[in-house]
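[#protein-structures] MJ: dropping Mitomycin radical oxidase here for a structure pass
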Amino acid sequence: MSLTTPDAATIVGPVLTPGDAGYAEELAGFNVATVQAPDVVVGATSADDVAAAVRHARAHGLRIGVRATGHGPVVEGHGLLTITTSRMTEVTVDPIARTARVGAGARWRDVIAATAPHGLTGLVGSSSSVGVVGYTLGGGLSPLGRQFGYAADRVRSIEVVTADGTVRTVDAGAGSDLFWALLGGRDGCGIVTALEFDLVGLTTLYGGGIYFAGGAAEQVLHAWRRWAPTLPEEAGTSVAILRLPPDPMLPPPLQGQIAVHVRFTYTGDPAVGAQLLAPMTSVGPVLLQNVDVMPVAALDAVHMDPPGPMPSIERGSTVRDLPADAVDAILAVAGPTVASPLAIVEIRLLGGRLTAPQGVPNSVTARSASYSVLAIAVPAGPAAELAGPHVGAVNAAVAPWADGGLLNFAGSTPAADLPGLWSTDDHDRLCAIRERHDPGGIFRRTV
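AK: finished. structure tokens for Mitomycin radical oxidase:
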């Protein structure tokens, strides 16, 4: 079908309604456990398409959701127009200024391909299949973050379509309130169609992971708890309890196993990195180790996140510290002796330059936290109905030490708890900016 806006502007990309060929495919994303069925879906090819779709939605009383790679939350309900930005994949690199400009549908792997030849990188997360814009607007936690901050800290300017259907460019000067709210608040102020951000000069690092036998979870997690805070900010680390499927694509020692995965990155001298990691190399029986010098373009090899679509339910918290009691509480609900649909329970070291904005003021959460705890379950098979409760149990286990959370890891956090990610002052400011720029509430609001 075609869609004509009140000012007679037309949309170049596809406009689909339920029952049209390609409708379901247009909405497909990474998390196949989430399904949405909007009244209209617009496959935007440009900021002008997005603006025209917003004007149409306003004229017809429709709410607006946006979808890029399908890693993020889903807008549900009737009276909804969803804009997909997956076609907007342009990436432009200025190697002299050390900046990149990316479209709303670009994934980190697109950015890596464009920046690596220049010896540059953005603050990519644990998986390069994730979309750049949603990741960055939610903060953007990279394995390199302790040294360089959140991805949001490096944004120079944002191209955004506001609720009046106008394409605007905002930065720390022009439209600074909107700029502040988008960088960390992510939703509810407009639809971001492009970002420009600073790159860092980095070509290689020392990193990878050590997979320990699941039965050693208690000694590995407690050893990691004591070791991780001793690291300099040039080092990043996380530890995860993994319940791995019998997938022939996995290395044979890991197929169908419960494993404890210690991840590590270090951007300095590899010999120093090896010395820093040494205390963790023999804390339990090793199934597999793949730590070495690697190109930054191969950063995916550190976490080895699943590359393809899968069903999942997730929820994360951040904690101010990680005493022995907190580790024991996690093991009690997610350790290797627990029958569980949990695929991943991860503890990630924060701190370093994540504790304060590194370039521009923004509304990124969890600045005061020392660790992130994330639980991901697969709602499939006979234990599918247990996925949500087990994810909730991990977060409840660390509640005594909780200190907010990361918006990108909020997942199934109840809506009533989401305002607690921000300080009262920051949440009040965020709500006021959203109300000012979208008084009719046509954009999806996380909180």
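MJ: nice. The chain is about 25% helix and 25% strand.
AK: one more thing. The CA atoms of residues 220 and 282 lie 9 Å apart.
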